[in-house]
């Protein structure tokens, strides 16, 4: 049982459990009395919170959507900052990042279902590769305003982070880009249904 008290193992477990907290689902239930797992796209992310709650309370929908993005981003960020304060290695930090995103996308509290990892990944990247993430966030916001398609804007923003990191960062502090690619792969994979709808021209706009 000693492994349970290992520094890295404890933080990896904490990252996964924190990532698993379905803030979008909780906020919509508590403040709007709706179950977003049963409506809209059935995702627990901010876009579905906005889409579902907007049907009955547009003003509340925007507030809950913003709160969902912020809280989902903080899930990984807070664990990372604690680990940094305690002197965790860069490889441990990236492990925390990967597990936080996995927790969000495959939540232990939702029978291994979950969201698509964009906000949680953004929070992780903001701590570990801040400049590329700021570039990606700008692309995300601009594309969101222009295209009005949440999934496409998110994927373009993520792609901008990856490309920027390849030019700005060298090895992410662990002599490998693998952790960044793993997080990106999880997010891309969770967006496969959206990508298929985009190809077919069936993806809904956020109005």
Fold blueprint:
Blueprint lengths: L6 H14 L2 H10 L13 H8 L4 H28 L4 H16 L12 H11 L1 H18 L2 H19 L9 H13 L1 H9 L7
What does this molecule look like?
- The relative contact order is 0.12.
- 71% of the residues lie in helices and 0% in strands.
- Helix 2 packs parallel to helix 3.
- It has one domain.
- The model has no long low-confidence stretch (mean pLDDT 88).
- It has 10 helices and no strands.
- The protein has 207 residues and is mainly α.
- The termini are far apart.
- Catalyzes the transfer of an acyl group from acyl-phosphate (acyl-PO(4)) to glycerol-3-phosphate (G3P) to form lysophosphatidic acid (LPA). This enzyme utilizes acyl-phosphate as fatty acyl donor, but not acyl-CoA or acyl-ACP.
Brief account:
By secondary structure, the protein is an all-alpha fold.
List keywords for this structure.
10 helices, 207 residues, single chain, mainly alpha
Order of helices and strands: HHHHHHHHHH
Q: Can you count the helices?
A: 10
Summarize the biggest pleated sheet: none
Q: How many strands?
A: 0
Low-confidence stretches: none
Looking at the structure, what is the overall shape? Answer: globular
Query: What is the percentage of strand-forming residues?
Result: under 5%
Q: Roughly how many Å is the radius of gyration?
A: 17 Å
Please identify the structural class as seen in this structure.
Answer: mainly alpha
EC number: 2.3.1.275
GO molecular function, one term: acyl-phosphate glycerol-3-phosphate acyltransferase activity
Keywords: Acyltransferase, Cell membrane, Lipid biosynthesis, Lipid metabolism, Membrane, Phospholipid biosynthesis, Phospholipid metabolism, Transferase, Transmembrane, Transmembrane helix
Function: Catalyzes the transfer of an acyl group from acyl-phosphate (acyl-PO(4)) to glycerol-3-phosphate (G3P) to form lysophosphatidic acid (LPA). This enzyme utilizes acyl-phosphate as fatty acyl donor, but not acyl-CoA or acyl-ACP.
